Amino acid sequence: MRPNGRIIVDRKDSLSELYHNFFKGTSWASYAVAAQLAGAEGKKLVFVIAVDPGDNVRCLNDLSGWQGRLPDETIVKGAKLLEQLKRYHKLFHNTRFYFVLRHAQGAAIWRLVSA
After folding, report:
1. Cβ–Cβ < 8 Å for 28, 34
2. What is the torsional sign of CA 60, 64, 65, 68?
3. N or C, which end of the chain has less CB nearby within 10 Å?
4. pLDDT tens digits, residue range 17-61?
5. How far apart are CA 28 and CA 113, in angstroms?
6. What's the distance, CA 13 to chain centroid?
7. What is the CA angle 11-101-91, rounded to 5?
8. Are strands 75-77 and 67-69 parallel, antiparallel or unpaired?
9. Given CA atoms 31, 34, 38, 43 in this order, what sign does their dihedral have?
């Protein structure tokens, strides 16, 4: 199978990485540009986020019940991250967020690009 070329995948190693990229710091602007460029080319920008069973996150709305700890020991609330991701998706309709168990992340990415 050959990749379909209609999807750009950004892999995230954890919910903490997703939080750091979208809520904390200045990375948000670069993700806005990435979504705009993908949209201009008629492509979807898909974020595939690895989760652990204890995270209890399988879809975007599950983030409302998630709470995590960043490497600097800061406690983060998933509800705030959920608000930010919904705001991002509202601005950039060509974006998607998929939450997959860590051990299945590679296979999930392959399915996306091979469809």
Report:
1. no
2. positive
3. N
4. 999 888 766 788 889 999 999 999 999 999 999 999 999 999 999
5. 24
6. 10
7. 45
8. antiparallel
9. negative
- pTM greater than the 0.85 cutoff: yes
* Closest by Cα among 114, 115, 106 to 48: 106
Percent of the chain with pLDDT over 90: 75
Residue 75: φ, ψ to 5° = -85, 130
Neighbours of 101 (CB within 10 A): 13
Above 50 in pLDDT, residue 2? no
Q: Name the strand (E) or helix (H) holding 78.
A: helix 78-91
Residue 115 in tokens: 């469809």
